[in-house]
Amino acid sequence: MSDKIAVLVAGSWGTALASVLASNQLDVALWTRTEEQAKEINERHTNERYLPGVELSPRIRATSVMEEAVSGSSAVIIVAPSSAMRAVSKQLKRCWNERMLVVHATKGFELESLKRMSTVISEELGCDEGRVVVLSGPSHAEEVVRRCPTTVVVASSDEQAAAAAQDLFMNAYFRVYTNRDMVGVELAGALKNIIALGAGMSDGLGFGDNAKAALLTRGLAEISRIGIELGANPLTFAGLAGIGDLVVTATSQHSRNWRAGSLLGQGKKVDEVLESMGMVVEGIRTTKAAYAISEKYGVQMPIADQLYHVLFKDRAPRSAVEALMGRDPKTEMEMMPLQTWKQWHNT
């Protein structure tokens, strides 16, 4: 395998993953959309907009020319926003070859088609979806670049591809597990952003720890319900991509989704929140996608439903919480059909 790895694009998470690869003594070509950002990374070894106060390894070299980043690379790590994933993958097609390992670390859906990111990438590259590896799990970029102990998961139906991604990233502070359940890992990574928005909103309203604990627990039930419907392994939601990522995203001020939700709870409108954040908040787009997915498959997602109405139908956050609390009484445990359990237990 070549010692050169391409990372697309130079946001906070892309830059953090580039730093992990550089610390593994790999040469990283970091693609950015602007020459100005490339110049800053190359000359000052900083990316102040996305990771202020961080000094980057000189092994990271940035370029605004994708062909230059990808040429000669043994692996391509795609960390584009979900809204840009198809366009970035289409551009990558011109310089990608089938010998390159493809890993994506984006948590979201394509809004128009409701497709997962691995599906979008495989369609544009013209490769089997199993060739794409998903990297997910509880991992704030701000902590990864400071080499705080972090554990993630890489998932692919191609065990060799997952193992190659594991070898690429694994080091003393960045531990990587493999998982065959690509569907579950992608769904968990995307949908937890909705619950993190709700947790932030609860905190912004001043509702305390009891409310947030309930929100996270019932949120995980929602994620699991839709995941099982779409063919995921239910055990995935009890792992790093599920409860691990949910906890870190819904309880930390590093989390954009938590911060956005907190501002909503304090009475800010969606447009004001997005303007003040200055970066992509995947949970907002994902809420719209999840609402459509729950309608399409007939699966109840009451938290996502109420957040959809707050974000896109101008419902007051306090009214949304009252609607959740006022739902008809339910049993806590939604029992999995025996045949489904047997299927996954024997996998």
TrEMBL record:
Cellular localisation: Cytoplasm
Binding site for substrate: 107, 256-257
Domain named Glycerol-3-phosphate dehydrogenase NAD-dependent C-terminal: residues: 181-322
Positions with a binding annotation for sn-glycerol 3-phosphate: 107, 137, 139, 192, 245, 255-257
Pfam families given in the database record: NAD_Gly3P_dh_C, NAD_Gly3P_dh_N
Entry binding sites for NAD(+): 141, 256
Recorded catalytic activity of this chain's protein: sn-glycerol 3-phosphate + NAD(+) = dihydroxyacetone phosphate + NADH + H(+); sn-glycerol 3-phosphate + NADP(+) = dihydroxyacetone phosphate + NADPH + H(+)
UniProt main location, coarse: cytoplasm
InterPro entries associated with the record: 6-PGluconate_DH-like_C_sf, 6PGD_dom2, G3P_DH_NAD-dep, G3P_DH_NAD-dep_C, G3P_DH_NAD-dep_N, NAD(P)-bd_dom_sf
Biological process (GO), any one: glycerophospholipid metabolic process
Active site per database record: 192
Entry function: Catalyzes the reduction of the glycolytic intermediate dihydroxyacetone phosphate (DHAP) to sn-glycerol 3-phosphate (G3P), the key precursor for phospholipid synthesis.
Protein name: Glycerol-3-phosphate dehydrogenase [NAD(P)+]
Organism: Paenibacillus campinasensis
